[in-house]
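Fold it.
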Amino acid sequence: MAKRIARTLMVVLAFTFVMSTAMIARSQGGQTEVGTPRVQTLIMDQLDGRVNNPKQMNPYLQSTLTNEGVNQLAFSTLWEINTATGKLFPAMAEKMPEPLNKDYTSFKITLRQGMAWSDGVEITADDLAYNLDMLIKNKAGFPYGGVIDGLVKSFKVLDKYTLQLDTKAPQPRLDTYLGVTIYGSGLRLVPKHIFEKQADPTKFDFYPPVTSGPYTVKDVDPNGNWFLWEKRADWAKTDVGMIVGEPKPQYILFRYYGPEEKRIIAGTQHNLDVFDDITPESWDILRAQNPTAKTFLNAFPWADMDDPCERGIELLDSKPPFDNVNVRWAFALATNISDVSQATFGGALRVSVMPVPPVTVLQNTLCQCVTG
């Protein structure tokens, strides 16, 4: 079973690891179906399936699907997180937010110097200020604008790379609001010099996007079955380039093949390198037919279980009868969790006593709270 790579922190870093350690199926040479050299192309499973609006890449529009490269390759965030350790670290920002008072209502945010948009224009604090202002003014069309409006009291640019942000209430964890907690962030900076020319940014598809990440769109399938990204020549002017170095693939192709059996066929033919979730039964077929296929672990449960994405039974507890805690307990006690685990991912699940993914950092924290 492959871990859901689309939800992996700093996916380009994962790409580098995958390519350099030969954890993908090896190419037999030739061209891909989209005309790129196969040996230079990493082919990714397309998490959202076929995308109905493939040329809508404005990250602030509610209907934009970001799992086919928009989140992973195109737009960076101020702060990222290592979900295995729970630690945040600066991405587009040069450092973590600096509190300017004891009440945690005023902060200094400093951007990395030397970053550029994919069209060559430098990324500055003016871009950050413009994004905040645009979101607040257009909160009716940009859902995340309501979050920013509820958070931000005021802001001002201090210098070319620094912005002061004042909040309406104490925010000692400002980085969790404006950065990444599990997967992506609502604040994906877009270029001021592009968006300020739009009469209504809430009706702007933003295709092809001018990106802050190390890749740009080369082409998309009009039917939404694939997205082709190409590495920027100036990848060093991105936060990814500054933090981890050059991404290895020249091209990254997100490809939708259809249901799981067709994805397995593509994998056996070396036409799919990184899978989203597949069942253990499908993994048995894939590894039997493709000896170069690898998983995160060499034995059961195959996947790295420190995945912040939940699996298993989830209940809508806002409506009867599951709004009643006693009903939920009765349901839990009447359920054989071993049978549930076997029926879903062949037993490859971690059991959690809390409604959160049981990753190691949370398990250790819970143990410390109980014993401490």
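The chain has three domains: 5-74+204-289, 79-194, 325-371.
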